[in-house]
Design a protein that fits this description.
The chain is α+β, with helices and mostly antiparallel strands. It has 10 helices and 20 strands. It folds into 2 domains: 130 residues, Creatinase/prolidase N-terminal domain (Creatine Amidinohydrolase, Chain A, domain 1); 222 residues, Creatine Amidinohydrolase. It comes from Candidatus Spyradenecus faecavium.
């Protein structure tokens, strides 16, 4: 573990102390990875508000844990009843025990029974707040991930052509991704023609026709960090209707990029795009939030939604993805990846917004 991971644990311990939580049980692999730098399929990071954290794992990962982890105590899991008894012995004085919202019932109930006299408190928001502000190394990884995503889309645009099905385009995506040694950060969304009105359409046998649009929402991972970008392009001469809707969405996207900055609430960033689309008469067709945070996971805290009053800070990485989806007509989404800077934002997505390809 390097200084950054130890600092993250320190920030978590400070958050636990401020919230009056005695200890937190971190079961999810992504949180263990974030706080230790070690990714394992099985494990637990037990963090008390003071003292040395304990990293539990099974036989498979003990050697690597001892080799790469410092600043934590490493223990092998015991059989379930013995393990719970160990937790109970350690936590006799605990009055508040932290857990992650993503725990399964099988994981949560034994903890609740073990600490029946303590209050069970979610630490998901505390962890999300810590993970929301990226360090320089994380931003660099996301920047490289976005660059790889740009390059991958550039490759795909030489492969996609009218007559292909969405499933064939998905196959080409997988081939190009593998050729570049990349893994995706989520299943790509590929929408030919009118399918673009479905925000999260799953690729099917629909054919890309000449004189029609194609929406592709895609991302890859570099050093574990995700990227995310959407482009809506047109094969042939764009129709007046497509131009109209595309222009409104691009205006909303650009307005957010120009205005977003630290100190702004997430809901206010969302309002910038929402007001532009509503003024154009299409407010009812923009049914999702403006964006979300991105990091080790494709969806992190905070969200750029009308409900979220979280204040943006330098180092946060968010998406700017307004859209208009008119059933049976036209669907357009434009998404860029942004990192909040001291004065505004840095745009990490560099693929042109307006892409017109020959039939």
């Amino acid at each position: 573990m390097d200084a950054e991971h130890l600092s993250r644990i320190g920030r978590l311990q400070a958050a636990l102390a401020a919230a009056g939580i005695d200890a937190a049980f971190l079961y999810t692999s992504v949180n263990r990875l974030y706080f230790t730098g070690l990714e394992t399929s099985n494990g637990l990071l037990l963090v008390e508000r003071q003292g040395t954290p304990i990293f539990y794992t099974d036989f498979r990962y003990l050697e690597v844990a001892h080799r790469v982890l410092n600043g934590v105590e490493i223990r092998k899991f015991k059989p379930a009843k013995e393990q719970l008894a160990e937790y109970a012995s350690m936590g006799q004085a605990w009055r508040a025990v932290g857990y992650e919202d993503t725990l399964s019932v099988d994981q949560f109930l034994p903890l609740q029974e073990t600490f029946a006299k303590a209050k069970m408190v979610s630490v998901t928001k505390h962890i999300g707040d810590i993970r929301a502000v990226k360090c320089a190394a994380e931003i660099d990884a996301i920047r490289r991930s976005a660059a790889a995503n740009d390059a991958l889309l550039g490759d795909l645009l030489t492969r996609f052509r009218p007559g292909m099905s969405e499933l064939e385009m998905l196959r080409q995506f997988r081939i190009a991704e593998a050729e570049r040694g990349l893994t995706e950060s989520f299943d790509p969304i590929i929408c030919a023609g009118v399918n673009a009105v479905e925000c999260h359409h799953q690729p099917d046998a629909s054919i890309l026709r000449p004189q029609s649009e194609l929406l592709i929402d895609m991302g890859v991972k570099v050093d574990g960090y995700c990227s995310d970008m959407t482009r809506t392009l047109f094969f042939g001469d764009p129709t007046p209707r497509f131009k109209e809707i595309f222009g409104i969405v691009l205006e909303a996207n650009a307005a957010v990029r120009a205005a977003i900055k630290p100190g702004m609430r997430c809901c206010d960033a969302d309002k910038i795009a929402r007001d532009i689309i509503a003024k154009a008469g299409y407010g009812d067709y923009f049914g999702h939030s403006l964006g979300h945070s991105v990091g080790l996971e494709i969806h992190e805290q905070p969200n750029l939604s009308f409900r979220c009053e979280t204040v943006l800070q330098p180092g946060m990485v968010v998406t700017d993805e307004p859209g208009i989806y008119i059933p049976g007509d036209v669907g357009v989404r434009i998404e860029d990846l942004l990192v909040i800077t001291e004065t505004g934002c840095e745009v990490l997505s560099h693929t042109p917004h307006e892409i017109i390809l020959p039939c």
